[in-house]
Amino acid sequence: MNFQKEFNTNKETWDKKVAIHAKSDFYDIESFKKGKTSLNSFELVALGDVSGKSLLHLQCHFGQDTLSWSRIGAKCTGVDISEEAIKLARNLNNEINQSAQFVCCNVLDVSKHISKKFDIIYTSYGVIGWLPDLKPWAQMISERLKPDGVFYIVEFHPIAWMFDYLQEPPELKYGYHQKGVIYEEYKGTYADENSEIISKEYGWNHSLGEVVTSLAQAGLEIEFLREHDASPYNIFPGLIKAENQLYELPSKLYPLIFEVKVTKKGA
């Protein structure tokens, strides 16, 4: 199927979000410019020492994570569908004296724009829901990894996306294995709920089985799949802040995030 209409709508929304997100407390660009990392404990522990390694960051928004990896020694390339996001990422890169590269393209088209292979491919928090099919995504990841290279994703748990958060209270509405597209239109963004922007978004739900199987079928070896009750971000209703400074459901009825780490077998 051709999903160009959906991709174009999402791109237009993300282009509009950039200026709003750049001013938000959520992204806190001024602290970032002064040296604050945007990375969380999950990804830092999972990837360890990245110094000297080439790293491709998929769906990087305006590059804070890309540049945070660059600051601790990785040789980074960031990719995003939004031209406005890539413009800001390049400006931030210059302002904080890093040497990251940024490419504007649909994540599914990365291999059309980048021929280099990487030691690490990374993506995080709110990424795969923009993709209608994970098979080409996983195949692209395999193509861009070096032998013995590592791919790592930390992402919001698919159970959390079964709810319609435009309802109060949130309504259990979408199927765990739902194949159809989900369209939402709402005021504001997760980074600034009071913004006047009207977000128009198409998204797709993906089960853990789909994530892991797509990567395995692309020839990648699963190192681990982990699920966690707590999230670094307070983006779902009713979360409470735990002693570890992460956010969780009072009931802990279901996990909020998952991690998958895979490797590409050496030639």
Supply the key terms:
single chain; SAM-dependent_MTases_sf; 14 strands; methyltransferase; transferase; Rossmann fold; Class I SAM-dependent methyltransferase; alpha/beta; three-stranded antiparallel β-sheet; globular; 29% helix; 8 helices; seven-stranded mixed β-sheet; 267 residues
The gist of it:
Residues 56-151 form the Methyltransferase type domain. This protein is α/β, with parallel strands linked by helices and 267 residues long.
What does this structure look like?
One of its GO terms (molecular function) is methyltransferase activity. InterPro entries: Methyltransf_12 (IPR013217), SAM-dependent_MTases_sf (IPR029063). Residues 56-151 form the Methyltransferase type domain. This is Class I SAM-dependent methyltransferase. Keywords: Methyltransferase, Transferase. With 267 residues, the protein is an alpha/beta fold. It has a single domain, classed as Rossmann fold (3-Layer(aba) Sandwich). Helices cover 29% and strands 27% of the residues. The chain contains eight helices and 14 strands. Strands 3-2-1-4-5-14-10 form a seven-stranded mixed sheet, sandwiched between helices. It has a three-stranded antiparallel sheet with strand order 11-13-12, with no helix packed on it. Helix 5 links the parallel strand 2 (75-80) and strand 3 (101-104). Helix 1 runs parallel beside helix 5 and helix 7 crosses helix 8. It is globular and about 50 Å long. The model has no long low-confidence stretch (mean pLDDT 97).
